Every structure is written in C-alpha cells, then in structure tokens.
C-alpha cells in the first residue's frame, strides 16, 4: 500500500532539509547580524528541547512508577492544591520565557538601529522589481542591478522599497529578510565579516510566476578593492572596440530605451553597467556566451513573466550583441 511509504518520505524530507548551498544558509552566518539571529534560534531551540526532555522524563517516570500491576491497586498521592508545587510550575515557565524574551528584545531593538547617518556606514537603496533587483548607492552616484557589491567590515544601511508588488529582500548568510513594499521604505542594516566572498540573495515573498528565479548575488570586497570598483564604475566608459560597434548599434536600436550602460544612468530595466563582470545573467544563469544567447533569444522561456520586451533578432544580430555586452566591464 502507498500509505506505507509515508513514513519513509517523511524521513527523507527531514534529511533533505539539511541540504543546501553554503552561501544560502542562515545556519552559516557571515556577519554579526546573522550571528545574533542564529544565537536567538539556538537559544529558543535549547529551551524547547530542555522543556521537552523534562516533560518526557516525568512522563516516563510516572508511566513506570504508577503503572497498574497484577494484584496491586495503588492510588498515587493526590497533590492538587499543593501551593509549593503550584508556585514551582508557575515560576519555571516565567523564568524560561524571560530567558528567551530578554535577549530577543535587546537584539531586536539593536538591529532596528538606523545607520544611514553613521560615519562608518555605506548607504544602499534597494528597489525590488518583477523579477530583478536594483541597487543604488546615493552617496557614490552609482546604480547597478542583480549584483550587490559591498565592502567587508562596514555597516551597510539599506533602504528597501518595491516598484510594483510586494517582495522581500533576504541575504540568509548576512541576516534576516525585510519586506519590500510599494510606497513604503523599510530600513535595516547588515554587515559582512570577510572579503572576497560571493553570497546569494533571494526574494522571500511570493511575487509572481518567476518568484523562485528572483535571485541576486552579493560580492564582499576589501576596502581597497571596493574603492577600486567605485572608481571603475564612475569612470568614463572606454571607447567601444571596432569589433563590437555593430553590436553597439543593435543595442541602441533595441535595448537602450530600457537599459542604461552607465552607472549614473536611469533606466526602466536593469542597469547594465559592469554587466560583463557579473557572475550571472538575469540573476539565474551562469555568465557565459551560450547562456547570454539563450537569454536574448527567449527571455520568457528562462524567466516567465519578466517584463523584458525584445524584438526577434537573427542569430547574427545576437552574436554581435553578445560581443558588445561583453565589453561592458
């Protein structure tokens, strides 16, 4: 019978919950915010396990000690109305709740601090779109998309908002999620401990057909490397090589209305400044010429419901466009 497979499937599902990517796990904190939140999870879990074990020990003891035996009719001593016992089992839950509540409240208020004015904070505005992420650095004059670049060891003060439906901004290894709502700006901060990491972020609220594909990457750099990245992003764009100029014209004819190629440019779609240096295409495909061709041929096939509208291009035009996009480093 199929019902006999239910316990096996339940056991397999339980084991599979421990599987996943190292850069997408809240149980592998890479910053102080995630570490504090993991501490709260461990604290709550520890108290729950303690209560469960105490209850089970008492249960087994009573089950064995007062079980009915042949030839015996023992009635345990009745303890209702015992003031000492009533005080004990009232105080113990209160103490356990305080053990959980005090650090939870303290850490929650600490994480709610607004670091936008902090001298050691980098201000980043995050705008969620169906189905991509826009990152703006107001103090640096930089706009980019799909890859969040941050310096390690610095507070990152986020302003999070949505351009359409409700989303949720989440970098599991750096901290908990925060809602991205239209017309409402939510603020919080994160901090990465180590440089030279490639972490993964997700949308954590169902937002449409491609919600599961609304990913982004987080690059953590040393302060020196981050300053170098800022300098490159704000520098004038180099001349397009002759081999990519036909692709540049194809881009202008078909894509420029929605996509900027300058870090200072405003755009309807993702800003493509530094596109060739990103690790993924559309946040989901490994960056390669083959995957870029697949995306340009049929964006809806790769990410259903996205708002990229592109005219049907010939294979030759796509090849030329790939050459040009690979110059946007």
Q: Would you write up a description of this structure?
A:
- The protein is α+β, with helices and mostly antiparallel strands and 329 residues long.
- The protein has 8 helices and 12 strands.
- It has helices at 6-16, 32-65, 83-111, 223-234, 245-254, 289-297, 299-302, 315-325; strands spanning 121-129, 132-137, 142-145, 147-151, 155-162, 167-171, 175-180, 186-190, 197-203, 215-221, 280-281, 285-286.
- Strands 3-2-1-5-8 form a 5-stranded mixed sheet. It has a 5-stranded mixed sheet with strand order 4-10-9-6-7. Strands 11-12 form a two-stranded antiparallel ribbon.
- β11 (280-281) and β12 form a beta hairpin.
- α6 (289-297) crosses α8.
Give the termini distance in whole angstroms.
59 Å
Low-confidence stretches: none
Query: How many DSSP-defined strands?
Result: 12
Proportion of residues in β-strands: 15-25%
Tally of DSSP helical segments: 8
Order of helices and strands: HHHEEEEEEEEEEHHEEHHH
Indicate the percent of residues in helices.
25-40%
| Main sheet specs | 5 strands, mixed
| Order of strands in the sheet with most strands | 3-2-1-5-8
> What is the residue-averaged pLDDT?
89
User: What structural class should be given to the helix and strand makeup?
Assistant: alpha+beta
The backbone outline, from C-alpha atoms, is elongated
- The radius of gyration is 27 Å
């Amino acid at each position: 019978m199929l019902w006999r497979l239910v316990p096996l499937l339940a056991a397999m599902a339980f084991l599979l919950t421990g599987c996943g990517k190292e850069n997408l796990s809240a149980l592998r904190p890479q910053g102080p915010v995630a570490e504090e939140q993991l501490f709260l999870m461990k604290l709550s879990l520890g108290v729950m396990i303690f209560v469960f074990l105490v209850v089970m020990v008492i249960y087994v003891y009573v089950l064995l000690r007062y079980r009915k035996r042949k030839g015996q009719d023992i009635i345990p001593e009745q303890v209702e109305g015992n003031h000492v016992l009533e005080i004990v089992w009232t105080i113990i839950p209160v103490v356990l709740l305080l053990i959980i509540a005090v650090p939870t409240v303290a850490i929650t208020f600490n994480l709610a601090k607004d670091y936008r004015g902090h001298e050691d904070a980098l201000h980043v505005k995050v705008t969620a779109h169906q189905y991509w992420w826009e990152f703006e650095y107001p103090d640096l004059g930089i706009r980019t998309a799909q890859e969040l670049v941050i310096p390690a060891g610095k507070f990152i003060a986020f302003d999070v908002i949505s351009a359409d439906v409700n989303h949720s901004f989440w970098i599991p290894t750096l901290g908990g999620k925060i809602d991205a709502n239209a017309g409402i700006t939510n603020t919080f901060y994160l901090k990465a401990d180590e440089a030279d990491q490639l972490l993964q972020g997700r949308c954590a609220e169902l937002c449409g057909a491609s919600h599961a594909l609304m990913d982004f990457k987080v690059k953590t750099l040393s302060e020196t490397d981050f300053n170098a990245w800022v300098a490159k992003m704000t520098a004038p764009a180099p001349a397009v090589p002759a081999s990519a100029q036909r692709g540049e014209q194809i881009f202008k004819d078909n894509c420029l209305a929605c996509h900027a190629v300058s870090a200072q440019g405003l755009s309807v779609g993702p800003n493509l400044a530094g596109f060739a240096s990103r690790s993924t295409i559309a946040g989901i495909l490994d960056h390669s010429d083959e995957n870029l061709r697949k995306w340009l041929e049929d964006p809806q096939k790769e990410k259903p419901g996205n708002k990229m509208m592109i005219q049907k291009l010939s294979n030759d035009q796509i090849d030329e466009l790939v050459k040009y996009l690979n110059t946007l480093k």
